[in-house]
Amino acid sequence: MFLDHPHQHMYDATGFFDGVAARYADKPHMRFMRSLDLSKNYLTALTDLVLTVRGSVSSEYPALGIPALQCGWSEWSACGFTTVAASVEEYFAEPAAPRRRAARRRGA
User: Fold this and answer.
1) What is the pTM of this model?
2) Do the beta carbons of residue 40 and residue 60 sit within 8 Å?
3) Calpha distance 13→9 (Å, rounded)
4) What DSSP line would sit under 40-66, residue for residue?
5) pLDDT single digits (tens) 6-16
């Protein structure tokens, strides 16, 4: 699920989010929604991993036990409660890492 920023009009003057949503509208495994159309509690219940450049979700969701992956620096990126990808390869490998760690704990 991809959500726009709650203040999208202030951050995306180019219409990038709408363009990406339109490009992938036919993909059943991808859903694009307006963040204001979904309650924060419902969103939290659906979330397994948060991906962000440097948004506040990288500090909010780990406090709820949901891992966060950043692809950019933030004030809290060195505090240890979020993962910061150091490269493109690491960014794309990291979302699978929690599943690999869970499988190792189960002995799978």
Assistant:
1) 0.71
2) no
3) 6
4) HHHHHHH-S-EEESS-THHHHTGGGT-
5) 888 888 888 89
